[in-house]
Amino acid sequence: MAHQLGLNLPSRTALGRDAFFVAPSNAMAMAMIDGWRGWAGGKLALTGPQGSGKTHLTHVWADLSGAQIISATDLMDADIPALARGPVAVEDVHLIANDDDAQTALFHLHNLVLAEGQALLLTGTGGVAHWGLTLPDLVSRMRGATAVEMDAPDDALLSALLVKLLADRQLTPKPELINYLMTRMDRSFAAAIALVDRLDAASLAQKRPLTRALAAQVLDIAPPQA
């Protein structure tokens, strides 16, 4: 396979169902998204570490349900009654832990969405109990939501994630590069995202292909033997 140099092209993140890799760590979450019409109380809380695929799965659900997606931090500027006329996904609820006004907006959105007979998906890092919400009525509503957690990745999922992240940047790595990275990187979704960002930046800056030597430089370890 010929070497491929990184080009300064915009990263296009693939967020469709076909690009979502189902593994034991996320299979339950995928099953709940597929069965969204049967959510207890019409709502679901999707939790997991940063980079675990919550945003990707949210977009999969939006394609299935026609839902609108909004960040929890944008709720104060949103038309809550208009949003509530259809299914809604609210991302990163943990980011409004110290924002009473945003929590109040989420509380009203929650009630209106369910009153309209629509579905509500909420996402956040860590378990719902650790989102740091302080509005008593909202906390009560969150306790009543079914929660499904996306776990840390296994080898198969982490490998597939690396390939996908590089493909989003129009880069096609050799299999041996993926294996090399897998044995030397921190084993988390967030680490995979950060590593690919650094690899892409180094490849662009140095006008070099993605090789094990470049990966060793980015990882700050001794280069591999030829």
From TrEMBL:
Gene3D superfamilies: 1.10.8.60, P-loop containing nucleotide triphosphate hydrolases
GO BP terms: DNA replication initiation
Upper lineage: Bacteria, Pseudomonadati, Pseudomonadota, Alphaproteobacteria, Rhodobacterales
GO cellular component terms, A-Z: plasma membrane
PANTHER family the record matches: CHROMOSOMAL REPLICATION INITIATOR PROTEIN DNAA, DNAA REGULATORY INACTIVATOR HDA
UniProt domain Hda lid: residue ranges: 167-218
Gene Ontology MF terms in the entry: DNA replication origin binding
Species of provenance: Sulfitobacter delicatus
Protein name (Swiss-Prot/TrEMBL): DnaA protein
